[in-house]
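Structure first, sequence second, as always.
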């Protein structure tokens, strides 16, 4: 294990459709000892929650992981045996996804080893190494888990979004048990009070179950409730962190999070979110809790995630320029004046350096985060928006020289544009999306925030992306010093449209449709602009040597289309026009052009790249003085992917 970060060691592992890379924690030494201790305690709180997500993603995930780990650790056969190698890949994928379904596509993994092989390996192990329940036999365990692993008809999708089906009953995620979609909707409909101006996020922190006698009730995730054993440990580390908080406000943040974890009271969760938004002066910051709802087909229940980070002072300057001009952007937006915020409040933004990723942010992570999600808190207190600078940097380093742009970009001219401005405009688009996009606009009075139902997430992501794309091409960007010239935005436009029309399809299987809301949103924007600009030849798809390329003829006209679509998407959101949302998403965002999909997959395959990336965390290690006090904290690199996963399983396993 070395302390230095070696650039050539950035790629850690490569299997299936995944690549694991390292990220570097620069400037850690500029933190004070107290801040370093804070980072350490928060890191432990972050890593402690790992098992929660495995269980949320599927009720058998933890047992399957433990079973496979037992085989992996104790294996004594030939390492180059095909079946063993296949089992290794399967386990690595389970680690990556926190479960047996693909982290992005949600489809269940197909093991490339046989049930017989696994059964043989299990039989070689002493029973105390197996994850057996009290009184359970090996045969009973096998009978329960094997169909889940091997039968493609059992729990085929983690999150099912297909229109017209019972989304609750057909999704394998563990947020509901024994209830139908209609029962869930009824249960929460009854709780909702439409006159409440500060509604809690109903159902956010619980599993909804139907008892044998037909009663439907919530199992709340809290100390003393479901996941109580894990949450107790998280609270322990939060208490340690509280003692070394940087200031009074940050102490309040940690205290209110502890109160929420102890009670499960969603009102207290909102209190915590408000305190968290107000904490702007601390150098160290964190996320720890039930946060995003993408893993629930109904978008209510939140998966557990955590992130520990500190502010990158230099890069934050860029986002501060954007934030301090928030009102200008709102006023000049191409949307109907009725949907604009007269006063944009508290749009804060910063670039951060990640120290630890955990839960639903590990190993695959977002590069930008905007929280809290509660609409009324955003309206009343604003939101905090971050770009994770060292993660985007790691992505960029890993993709250099991959040959991707050379294969898919139309000509040297566009390639040069992307090479010159690509990284800068990518970061800027993320900033605009997070700092301004999500925070802009408003709902008309009495419009239900959930009116767009299953289409809400795609529409919301499209709104934020369009806002970013629209302003990227504005002369204000050059004026504010955010872009060097009027050409730079073209790199982003080209890359965005190429991705939305073609290259993002490398992430899904042949024959599949788009399910994930970010992917849907990108195709929605690209396809809508493509089709609406067809008559005036704004952009075309050109064939050359049997390959399809995107050619943008008129960037300014494309910007007008972006503005037009932004106005419509904002109208849909502001008025809660469910029918228009459904129509837009179903027409442009779901179905895949099969011919282009096949072609893109073929070309991509030849590049031998991994469509998904994830990250191995550094180790955050306290150094103790003779008196038992922490005298320093070190950041160490060099851990292998399986090494890290097995260590986490050993040190942070609190659920059966
Ligand atoms: Zn977003």
């Amino acid at each position: 294990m070395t302390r230095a970060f070696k650039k050539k060691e950035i790629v850690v592992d490569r299997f299936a459709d995944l690549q694991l890379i390292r990220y570097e924690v620069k400037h850690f030494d500029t933190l004070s000892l107290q801040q370093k201790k804070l980072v350490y305690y928060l890191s432990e709180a972050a890593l402690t929650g790992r098992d929660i997500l495995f269980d949320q993603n599927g009720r058998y995930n933890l047992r399957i992981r433990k079973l496979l780990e037992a085989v992996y650790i104790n294996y004594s056969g030939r390492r180059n045996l095909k079946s063993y190698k296949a089992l290794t890949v399967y386990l690595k994928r389970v680690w990556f996804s926190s479960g047996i379904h693909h982290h992005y596509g949600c489809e269940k993994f197909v093991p490339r080893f046989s049930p017989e092989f696994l059964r043989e390996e299990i039989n070689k192990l002493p029973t105390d190494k197996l994850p057996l329940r009290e009184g359970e036999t090996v045969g009973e365990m096998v009978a329960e888990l094997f169909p889940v692993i091997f039968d493609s008809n059992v729990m085929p999708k983690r999150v099912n979004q297909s229109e017209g089906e019972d989304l609750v009953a057909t999704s394998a995620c563990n947020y509901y048990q024994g209830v139908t979609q209609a029962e869930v909707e009824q249960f929460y409909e009854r709780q909702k009070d439409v006159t409440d101006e500060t509604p809690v996020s109903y159902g956010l922190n619980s599993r909804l179950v139907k008892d044998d006698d037909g009663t439907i009730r919530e199992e709340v995730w809290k100390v003393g409730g479901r996941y109580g054993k894990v949450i107790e440990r998280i609270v322990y580390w939060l208490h340690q962190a509280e003692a070394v908080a940087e200031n009074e406000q940050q102490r309040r943040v940690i205290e209110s999070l502890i109160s929420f974890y102890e009670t499960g009271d969603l009102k207290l969760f909102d209190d915590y979110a408000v305190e968290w938004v107000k904490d702007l002066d601390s150098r160290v910051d964190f996320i720890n809790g039930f946060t995003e709802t993408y893993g629930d087909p109904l978008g209510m229940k939140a998966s557990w995630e955590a992130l520990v980070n500190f502010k990158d002072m230099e890069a934050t300057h860029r986002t501060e320029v954007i934030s301090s001009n928030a009102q200008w952007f709102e006023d000049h937006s191409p949307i109907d004046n009725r949907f604009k915020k007269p006063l944009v409040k508290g749009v804060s933004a910063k670039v951060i350096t990640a120290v630890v990723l955990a839960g639903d942010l590990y190993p695959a992570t977002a590069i930008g985060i905007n929280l809290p999600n509660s609409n009324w808190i955003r309206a009343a207190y604003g939101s905090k928006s971050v770009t994770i600078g060292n993660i985007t940097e790691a992505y960029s380093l890993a993709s250099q020289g991959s040959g991707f742009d050379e294969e898919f970009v139309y000509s040297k001219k566009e390639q040069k544009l992307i090479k010159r401005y690509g990284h800068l405009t990518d970061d800027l688009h993320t900033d605009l999306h997070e700092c301004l996009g999500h925070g802009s606009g408003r709902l008309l009075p009495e419009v239900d925030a959930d009116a767009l139902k299953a289409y809400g997430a795609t529409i919301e992501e499209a709104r934020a992306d369009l806002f970013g794309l629209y302003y990227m091409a504005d002369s204000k960007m050059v004026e504010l010093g955010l872009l060097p010239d009027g050409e730079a935005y073209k790199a982003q436009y080209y890359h965005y449209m190429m991705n939305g029309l073609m290259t993002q399809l490398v992430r899904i299987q042949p024959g599949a449709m788009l399910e994930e809301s970010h992917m849907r949103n990108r195709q929605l924007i690209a396809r809508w602009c493509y089709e609406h600009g067809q008559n005036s030849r704004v952009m075309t798809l050109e064939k050359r040597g049997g390959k399809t390329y995107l050619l943008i003829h008129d960037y300014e006209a494309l910007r007008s289309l972006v503005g037009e679509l932004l106005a419509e998407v904002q109208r849909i959101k502001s008025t809660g026009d469910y029918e228009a949302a459904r129509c837009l998403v179903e027409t442009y965002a779901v179905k895949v052009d099969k011919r282009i999909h096949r072609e893109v997959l073929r070309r991509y395959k030849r590049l031998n790249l991994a469509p998904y990336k994830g990250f191995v965390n550094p180790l955050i290690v306290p150094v103790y003085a003779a008196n038992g006090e922490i005298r320093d904290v070190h950041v160490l690199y060099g851990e292998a992917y399986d090494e890290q996963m097995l260590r986490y399983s050993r040190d942070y396993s609190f659920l059966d």
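Margin note: Residues 433, 438, 461, 464 surround zinc ion (CB under 6 Å).
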